[in-house]
Amino acid sequence: MLVGNKADLRHLRAVPTEEARSFSERENMFFMETSALDATNVEQAFTHVLTQIYRVMSRKALDGTGDPMSLPKGQTIDIGNKDDVTAVKSSGCCSG
């Protein structure tokens, strides 16, 4: 996965969007631009990477290529929700 951050600062862009997209396609990677400042695509980027991890782990478990003992059983990982992100941002951690 290739993530271009600070998408809100287009005038300071070091790598053009199309160049990054072409690179990610050549390398067989997912590409997305994000902005932590205005929360554009941040949640989607995390959701995408977690979904891909889940798919790979599930496939390994189903086809027997992974060690079944290494797969978590019945564990839940709490990654928070939008209210958590809003509370942190409003406290000033992400403002410039």
UniProtKB/TrEMBL annotation:
One Pfam family cited in the UniProt record for this chain: Ras
PROSITE patterns (UniProt xref): RAB, RAS
The protein's name: Small GTPase
Source domain of life: Eukaryota
PANTHER family: DRAB11-RELATED
One of the record's GO molecular function terms: GTP binding
Protein's organism: Arabidopsis thaliana x Arabidopsis arenosa
Any coiled-coil regions, as ranges: none
InterPro entries found in the cross-reference section: Rab_GTPases_membrane_traffic, Small_GTPase
